[in-house]
Amino acid sequence: MASICQGTWDCQDCPKAVGNTIIHIIYQRGFHKPAQKCEENFILFLIKGEMLVNSQEYAGTMLKEGEFILQAIGSKFEMLAMTDCECIYYGFIQPEMFCDSRFNHIMKDVPSPLIYSPLKIIPELQYLLSGSIAYLRDNKICRELLSLKRKELAFVLGYYYSDYDLATLVHPLAKYTNSFQCFVFQNYKKVKTVEELAQLGGYTLSTLRRIFTSVFHEPVYEWMQARRKEGILDDLHNSNYSISEICYKYGFESLPHFSNFCKKFFGASPRNLRKNEYENKNKLSDTKEIEYSSGGLL
User: Is 223-292 CATH 1.10.10?
Assistant: First the structure.
């Protein structure tokens, strides 16, 4: 059997390699990350040093060696390294460290902390973090190894930390998820493009797409297209808007463009879609009259 020379084997080129989301980072004293919206959920484990962090939950909090915090996607976060700091950064989109039943139980039965305080890195968690540092320096990591480390972290957090401790992590995740949902539902009808929605919310385009996929579990463009189609059909079937009014309401440049869109996605022109719906309602009305007259509903 041919042997593999480990000296020339580059795991970064392996097809199983993916972007590493558990990263070992050294921050030099004085490093400053200005306040900006987080593009993903993350947990920051401070292995050595002291770091001043600032967010709605952790306003002017001194994060000390052996502590960790969570910041939710879409929240604003600022940090300043007061000394040389050694950290492990764990980024994620879905809250994989919780099963749904535990997450819902904490949301329903465990109140959100009045004052947020960093959590302590207990020995069991320290073993996991220390044992992982050696291979968390590269930009990519084996997909299977990353999955195992995520599961191990989920186990340690779920098994060794109380519901009250985990409430510090769960409530911010739910809060920013719910606030983002409200923003989308309140504003998606006001814009014509994904770019306009991002600008309205003060997000970069990449950040909006990332948060949206996390919260709604589908790309923002596809979601907006689906809502647009639903609105068009509802207006054609149930409103008194003219075809022209519906056309320009949904941002089409011309009636032929609108007609081609309806034929492509609904199989008929706007006029025929409205006509067919009108005929179907009349047939249903006639059927009900026949049933009533024959006693069919008694």
Answer: yes
